[in-house]
């Protein structure tokens, strides 16, 4: 059984949740388990250069935001409370975050660790990153800190830390993977760190070992239907479109368009995403092809009419909108 932990490495509850999951698995007698860490960002607006936490906490806007996360407690009181819980879990008496740090680069290293060495190596890297942030009070957005971790894990070269940047390469290894994983988490409905996912079940927060074990027992009794990877990706892209993230949907659709560009479902979803992101020329081209192939596809024809109307091509739009309404009367009010 695969367990996915969707979490951010600057989230104190993720560090606590990792320890509690380890305790739950220590007495686990069910099927073999693989634990995989997936990226989530609790602070996507964190600056590229980390800011000392003490300075950040003096910001009135940050203070107000943090109070909504811990009703009845000031940010300082909440940090002390979480530190006490962490100490009780054996994470060390000197525990806390010293920096407001961006985590994309750390997530990239963690994703690469799984790709190159599997769950065991990834777990070692996650441990090192969490310890660096919460115990050693290091800036985990600093490439020097991450290079040390990558070197110890034998990943420095794979992560691109030992060679000069290649001007022809637009992204470092693993960057696109992290971007896709963040979108996949959003499509799945992940909304907090940590979230444990097993099969079709999700458990939010750093729950007790007993609760985690009960969750895993429940998940192991349910055998989810395994869908082809292409179908899962298509569904995630559709979820992102429903969440009004058409550019994210197009990111997930990119490999499907390359490998299954003749699939009508893929092309129609891409056309919808083009329309929703105001890429009207691309939407029109895709929809004209779909309508030519299947003239009685009322939805494709209706969307083509709306696209043409937004482009100011009202006469062309009217013919398509009229035909679509004749085939599907509900479109007469669209």
Structure description:
The structure is a single chain. The chain is α+β, with helices and mostly antiparallel strands and 334 residues long. It has two domains: 2-221, Glutaredoxin, CATH 3.40.30; 229-333, Tetratricopeptide repeat domain (Serine Threonine Protein Phosphatase 5, Tetratricopeptide repeat, Alpha Horseshoe), CATH 1.25.40.10. The chain has 14 helices and six strands. It has helices at 12-26, 53-57, 60-69, 75-88, 104-134, 143-152, 175-188, 209-221, 229-242, 246-259, 264-276, 280-293, 298-310, 314-327, and strands at residues 2-7, 34-39, 51-52, 99-100, 195-198, 201-204. A four-stranded mixed sheet has the order 2-1-5-6, sandwiched between helices. Strands 3-4 form a two-stranded antiparallel sheet. α12 (280-293) runs antiparallel to α13. The longest helix is centred in the middle third of the chain and has 31 residues, at 104-134. It is elongated, with a radius of gyration of 24 Å. The two termini are 46 Å apart. 38% of the residues are buried.
